[in-house]
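Worked Example 4.2. Read the sequence first, then its structure tokens.
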Amino acid sequence: MKYLIKLFLIQSVFCFSQSRNDVFPLISKILDDSNEYRLTTETINKIYLETNYSFSNFNQKYYKVSYHHPTKITDIKYGLYDIEKRKIAIPINYYRINENKKYIILESNNSKYTLLDKKLKKIVEDEYDKYYFNEHFILLKKNNLEGVYFFSCNCFKIPMVYSDIKSIIYHRGFIAKKNSEIEYYNEKGDLLFNELKSVTEFGNKFKNERTGKRIILKDKNNYVGLYDNISHKFIIPMKYKQINETYFGDFIVKKNKKYGVLSKRKNVLIDFKYDSIKHPIPFYNFDKIKNDSIIKSDLLFIASKNGKFGLVNKNGKNIVDFKFSYGEYLNLNFYKLKKGGKYFIFNKNGNKITEKSFDNVRSFIATKNDIIAPVFNKGYMSYINQDGILTEKNNKKTTASGYGSVKELYEQFVIALKEKEDSKLYDFCKKLVPDEYSIDYLERAEINIRNIPNKINKSHLEQIVNNNFKILLEFKNKLKNNNHLEDLKYVKLSKGQVYIKINNKNIQATDGTGRLISGDKNYSFKLGELLNIDGFWKSFTKPYN
């Protein structure tokens, strides 16, 4: 053979119907015929080869033969050996050979792909620049155009005329882009819709699920509809401007600049006469605790019209009149509405639990003896129970602060990094870590996360902020030295948000890593394990990149 290297050991992997005594002469013949191998010794269960070739199981019909270049370790080429015919079936000059249950893909040294069946017959005669395939289809790319070849008809049902094709999750359909228009095909490759502006998956955002069963179609006039990929029927026709789902499966939709609510059966629950409608997410911020049952009929919609907010039930009946400047759901069927710069607390019946008003109100907490919410006036925090009685007055001079979403947190992180004054980055760190309010909240909710609040005090908090600041400042200097700070942007989080149970309480959390980009350079930075503590995302571990 052309190249010789030291003797090396190859474990015997020839596990097929032929006896072991047949294996040695078989391999000897292959090596001799190839004129590139020299077999030197055979021992029990081991074969010593003075060669750069090795064999491994590929499937029941073939062995994958690999050639290792003697001086270039990463230079490996592959071929296939036919067990029955006892000869090399695919020359040993491919960089990769992959398969599924029915087909084999060959990748050549110039990153071109060829598709074969299990009889090694070419399915598609040409070579392609990209592929993705399963047992039903193969998505191919050539000369910057993409198409989908279906094995059921051995043809391109989705022609190679598109600049980009994406498969819906679980291959329930295909989104094909051509120029500025989108076309949509079903899972069998039949064209369903054309002249679309966009197609997006409509997953269950409350359960963090993607199934590909439902999609939002937007036409060239910006009207949207909700389409079922299983029944191939519209759930909501394409005549609305916006569609959002509530936790219970009803839909908040926008029509003629006004919002209303449709049921799953497309019945109008709330007329299209509101400037905005929000629906509470149950089980958020400890909703389902102490056997407190949140049921669909109890939850109210927070709506606005003519710049004023009020509460509406699922039948469209006004529960609280529209005379407030802002409205928000707390939890446990309590709401806060703002008027004259002050918040009032309302229950599910639309009644104020107290005539007192507050600068701010946070979520209710179920303690051993009561259900209480922190309220703030003039910088001081007190607690009020569900009956509207102040249980603790002027308890602490503190405020609740932080970032209301992970997206906002990472975007503010980028802004703080770009600031000339490092003090801005330090201020960000103070908002990032649990503060005095967070600790107080966790104590009353009887929640312990990484020894917080059990083994922490004000001096510990300052030390955590200082330690985190050093890490973030080091990252800032790295970006500055690489000239990547000025154009830095936040792209997305690597993982979504989930609900975790701590002491039988539901808390939103994520351990995802933030993806940042500056020009063509990507950075990954994790601001720690993040948990949503009373509406603010806080980090409970050290940040790192």
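Now turn to a second chain, presented in exactly the same format:
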Amino acid sequence: MATRRRPRAPRARDEAPVASSRAAGHSGGRDARRQGPGAADGTGAGVDVRGRTVRGAAAAGAVLLALVACTSTEPEHDRADDVVVAVGSPFLSLNAGTAAGLAPGSTLVRGLVQSGFTSLEEDGSVVADPSFGTVEVVDDEPFTVRYTIAETARWSDGVPVTPADLLLEWAARSGQLDEVVPEIGADGLPVDPAALDDVVAFAATSPALVHATAVPRVDGATVTVVHDRRVADWQVALDVNLPAHVVGRLALDPAAQTTDDPAPTGAGTVPPTDGPTPGATATGAAPGGTATGAPATTEPAPGADPTAVAADAARWAGAVQTAVEEQDRDALVDVARVWRAAGTAGDVATDPVLTTTTGPYVLAQVDDDGVLAVPNDAYAGAAPAAYASVRVRTDLDPLAQVDAVSEGGVDVAAPLSTGDVLAAAAQVEGATVLTGGDAVLQLVLQEGGGGVFDAAASSAGQATAARAAFVATVPREEVVTRAAEPLWGDATVSDEVLAEVALGPLPSGEGTAATAAPTAAAPTGTATATQAPTAPGADGLVVRLLANTDDPVRAEALEVVTSAAADAGIEVVVAEVEDPAAALRTEPEAWDAALVPVAQEALGVSAAVARWRTDGATNVTGHADDALDEAVDALDRAVDADARADALGAVAEGLRASGAVLPLVRTPALTLVRDSPVAGLPTPAGVPLLPPARADLTSWWGWVRG
């Protein structure tokens, strides 16, 4: 494999043998019968290198050689340094502060092209990248965090990462400069985005930065952030996101608002180009014209004066820093507008932010089929690119992804795991099938909305008895056996209550398990398939269960829960709603219980606090508990590892004891890796299972780094 070199022009999409064998009308397999050009001239005579006619035995030898040449097989593939990954979730945005940027497809791509101070692992642990910089607590009262940017931290256009980049992100995520709080719809987006254009409104307040009320202090390459109180998520609270020098130019330079170089629209609907498009220079300007084969580059245009380019970038980054430090309203209105829109999937020429990142790869092409990333020549960090290009395809359905691996057009696929997809994957020769766990499927109960578990609709005693009776009927082992094991043979019952923090078991503190098992006081989920419990409050109980039955795992879990409850005298009916996902958040009166797959969150502790504290921002169940609130508040302020582990355990134990949530099983995930050597194709090594529910996939991409 090549290391950190600019690749040749990538093969056009329709040249790669990636079409589904079903669509082609055959059973699959690659056509290995293509022949090379013949060498015989058809006369029965050969011609030697000096132009003389060769007859007799020599001529016969020449004919034999010609026949051999005619029947030889040309290499079917020619991309040994170009790896292709197929997934089901589209790339939407590089902006990690927006709903689109937090979508699974965006998280995957950002993990490939963006580096920062830290990254987050599946178990909730934080991994530092000293080649980018350091993050450290320098004072406990007031709680103060210092960021020091390393000299090797650079944007892909060669511009150094500066404090301006962090100040821009603080301005966007702290909420301190926003003049309005927009109404957010069920999709996580502002209901009226046009109303934000004339005010300072980044509309992306982070709970991990909301207590950083003062403008951060800048001293050389360091940025110091003072919080009003301790913040558990301090290690991942602030990092680089969008480049200040590009956002500054797009927002504040009148020359950037031309038809040749339009500002980002934010709609993500810019028509994609047919091929790679030149990206931005260090000043954010895109060279004219459309590339016909060469990958995009964020390097300065040929002949550009590097000193002038650097000075221009510093000018626009400085303009952003000044606007934030001096709270220049006029400038911040424009900066906020560009920040909200920048980085959305579309033509890379119209959004230079798409080609200006800090990781070992940089986007060269974004289209309807996915993205193409190439090595970032400006990258000087600890994990350089190991392939000439990485193509992430999002245009194939699950079975087509499997076919593409079989046919050599895709090297790694992470299709939706279903029975037919898993069976097809098992038939692919020369490939390894990886199965494992993804999001944690949990059963949560609605304690508001006037339903059967709402104390206000009956009494506290009746509601508590009803909750205990229903949850006690759930046979978790049978849910695992019927819903998960057919797709993941090693599936087990999950006890992960705080899946937003970690998808697997959390580390334990002193004497406290962070993953709480059922307790005697709350015999939740203790039923078996053959013996359902009889409990007070069960007779005549009707529970409306909210579930997306388009998901086969949830559909099967629903069947198990329904059957087991019926054996205990409880009737379970499917909640009648148009959109289960929306109803979970906006229609508490329409459901009593819900099957919810819980993904990891980038700010895990903050997410857990918002989900389970009384009146929390994402507390969809209406659960309220003064004792739990105390435990949650302690967790929200736990900044060292031991205190955090103990606090996580206390919150998990409180939730399980109250019967507010019952974890069932991790939903199955599938990854198919073509790992047998094939001429002309890369041979990926060390590829792990891809769980889309992870909040950060930086470490998953370790196999494409040196």
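Notes for the reader: Confidence is low (pLDDT under 50) at residues 1-72, 259-298, 509-524, 526-534. The longest helix spans residues 306-325.
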